[in-house]
């Protein structure tokens, strides 16, 4: 499908990683890491909120790169009543949960073959970023990228989008951002980017197709 008449042509895609290009199932992760505490949907929901704090609080500081792993484990233990060993078990299990999502990674390859500029903008602590770069060759299909833990900025703060614009040489109206969190999508749109809310692979494919990037 070609881009709609009268719209600025999009030639750049900026990807989020977790739950977009990599599997992210925090409740499954918690159940596997804390089997004595997570026994059903109710306890899974409880520990999801307690541990990750809606990806705010301690975890946001980990994402931002201002808290190290051992300190994070201690903070979570003191705040939740988990032992430090239990908190550390969850933290250390995250890289194994972050497995590539084959369908959306296929879109990265397809866009790469078409010569579309591609970047990533991910809330990702530095230890996990190191793991993903080391383990998955497709990351090299991106022209460049920003991990929050390396620049000490996180989405949806406007500052990390401004840094991406400067570092990647983005033209906002020619850029589409793909992310699974509505607040991050809203933040991108507030800067004049186009954006796709990644609720599932079909939504990503449809959004890219409607912008004329796949056909």
Automatic annotation (TrEMBL):
Lineage top rank: taxon: Bacteria
Name the UniProt record assigns to this protein: HAD family phosphatase
Organism listed in the record: Aquincola tertiaricarbonis
């Amino acid at each position: 499908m070609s881009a709609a008449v009268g719209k600025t042509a999009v030639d750049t895609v900026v990807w989020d990683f977790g739950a977009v290009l990599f599997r992210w199932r925090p409740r499954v992760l918690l159940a596997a890491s804390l089997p004595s505490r997570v026994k059903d949907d109710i306890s899974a929901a409880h520990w999801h909120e307690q541990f990750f704090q809606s990806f705010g609080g301690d975890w946001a500081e980990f994402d931002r790169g201002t808290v190290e792993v051992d300190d994070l484990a201690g903070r979570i233990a003191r705040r939740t009543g988990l032992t430090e060993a239990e908190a550390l078990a969850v933290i250390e299990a995250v890289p194994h949960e972050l497995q590539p999502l084959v369908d959306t990674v296929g879109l990265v390859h397809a866009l790469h073959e078409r010569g579309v500029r591609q970047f990533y903008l991910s809330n990702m602590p530095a230890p996990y970023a190191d793991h993903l770069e080391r383990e998955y060759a497709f990351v090299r299909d991106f022209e460049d990228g920003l991990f929050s833990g390396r620049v000490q900025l996180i989405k949806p703060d406007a500052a990390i989008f401004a840094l991406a614009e400067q570092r990647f040489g983005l033209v906002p109206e020619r850029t589409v951002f793909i992310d699974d969190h509505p607040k991050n999508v809203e933040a991108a749109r507030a800067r004049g980017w186009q954006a796709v809310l990644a609720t599932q692979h079909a939504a990503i494919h449809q959004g890219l197709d409607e912008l004329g990037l796949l056909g």
